[in-house]
Amino acid sequence: MLRPGPGNRAEEVAQNQRERIFGAMVASVSERGYTATRVSDLVALSGVSSRTFYDLFADKQTCFLEAVQAVLALAVKVAAEADAAVSDASWEERAASGFKAFAEMIANQPAAARMCLIEAYAAGPEALKPLDDATAGFESLAKQMSLESPERAGMPEEMFTAHVGALQEIARNRIGRGTTAELPALMDEVAEFMLSYRPPPVPLRLGTRSPAPRAEDLEAHNHAERALRALAVVVAEKGYAQTTIDEVISRASMSATTFYANFSGKDDALMAAIDGAGAQVVAAVMPAFDRSADWPSGVRAAFGAMFSFLATRPALAHLMTVGIYGAGVPALKRRARALAPLGGLIEGGGRRFQLPSVGLEAIAGAVYGLMYRQVRRGGAASLPALAPICTYMTLAPFIGAEAAAAAANGGGAGRGAGGADLPYRVVLSKLLEALNDEPATPETLATKVGVGAEVVVEHLRQLELSGLVEIVAKRKVRDSLEPVYSSETNWIEDPDWAGMSQAERRTISRHIVRVVIGELNQAVEDDTFDARVDRHLSRLPVILDEQGWAEMMKVHLDAFQASLEVRDRSRERLEGSGEEGVRGRSVQVFFEVPKP
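User: That's the sequence. What structure does it adopt?
Assistant: Structure tokens below.
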């Protein structure tokens, strides 16, 4: 509040009162939700009179709309300032900075974020316009920034929509769980994942005809299903917040007694509708996926089946992609649970590829973002057009741009006998990772990596010419001598490491840490970590001066060199004895930690 007295100008007083009411709106909507917030709540929280409120705003909705506009205007300003602060950095670093600024805004102002990203959908279409404008602005900024990267020339427009949609869904998930404080720490991983996408090497196309649009059929096998279909129709017309039970039972041509015999109220009916819709979508998708010859074509078939089914049920499609947001966090959580089996198709097929845990969440969020925009712009009948881009976006992080584009344009009708070929860069990465564990023959590597022996031999030849692997022995395999390869990339020398950018070093370190943590967790879960009494685990916090830091680094380097010598002597003894040996991991880490 301003200090009372005659020195305050009228416009200053009005601005102060507006801002106090905006603050009250943020606080009340975060606690009660938009629908339950009353003007009396805003008046009590802000300390202004009812008369003053109505002098400034026509009604609650007008006040809410202006509050959302004010918050989003500030968010756009903060994003622009964050970009300007790193204007001399590379495109990737600027984009990562933008992700971090977005996350920090939400972490610092979770109530305002909830108002804009969740509650705005309950306030009617007028309240969505500022959010739509801000979303379009972020998409445009992402597109403009990407033009600075020659590798991303020709990126489909839908990819920018997908990336912004994924960020919003990742944020909504944490707003719903009350864990927005963890968002900034996630952003490096999110940025790395999203910036890994490249444009498809060929245009993505829809090779099949979309189902003909039709009106929702209310005929059903029982009263409950008829009520749920009527609910979906009314929500599509008016939005969930504005839908009443009277309208639902009128549309379903049933009595209130019949409705309440099946549902306790509107929210209960909505949850049942989401469960039913999820079950129907899963039932449409699973057979299409199972009939496919391989995983990539199965993903394409799954998207085709899902979007074709939703196109024939326009009200149900609208409920699951647009109307659901008006019901808030409980409905979004229910949808995630109802469609969880579809996420399992992606996760299960991609287990042999390394992907950050947030990657699957980002893919789901991107698909939801594209579906939301498509239904709002073109109706449910236009959903099948999303199948190619959604397939590409889902598969590219796993199998590479070329194979993902081929699957996206294949319509899900793959006829191959085996799995999809791994992209060139993935084969190289997995070969080097396997050889860093231990020397191996091409036949052994083919089994580990999951590709043909001839493919391994070709890649090993390229790696040998590049000086990254060498033949260290010959081993008899059946009737011939097979070369035994070993990796020459056990470490990066200091001059090479110093010549890398911070972003490059962070990417490499994150990958190694992810592998180490995965192996530790697996060993603990499989009871091999504590199977031997003579295993070692230590954590030593230290505070060092520069000399102490150098001395500690020398301890680690000496220990690493000694470890290499022990490994090599043991390898020679095992080759002589023919024993298998004990598989182990020696992990050394010494690093600076942030201040508490």
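Confidence is low (pLDDT under 50) at residues 415-421.
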